[in-house]
Amino acid sequence: MHAILFSYFWLGLFVGGLVAPAERVWMLESHLVTEGWQLTVLSMVLVLPAPMIYLFRMKYSSEDTGREEVSDA
User: What burial class does residue 20 get, using C-beta atoms within 10 Å of its C-beta: 0-12 exposed, 13-18 middle, 19+ buried?
Assistant: First the structure.
């Protein structure tokens, strides 16, 4: 459940940065983010890796649990 909420939070940052009016971006008072698309890029760099790592780990951990080891004994 937490991964879904985190993904929706990231999606909100991503889309919000694309459609953010200039007045709202100026309210951030940031020297790093001066336009809305920069907020989108920043969210991709800082936030997107976490859900991707989570999905990657879930994919491979579910594959590992389905295998049974065969012993020659």
Answer: buried
Q: Quick one: pLDDT band at residue 68, thresholds 50, 70, 90?
A: low
Q: Read off the pTM.
A: 0.63
Q: What is the rounded CA–CA span in Å between residue 3 and residue 7? A: 6
Range of the domain at 27: 2-53
In a domain, 31, yes or no: yes
Q: How confident is the model at residue 70 (pLDDT cuts 50, 70, 90)?
A: low
Q: Is residue 7 part of a domain?
A: yes
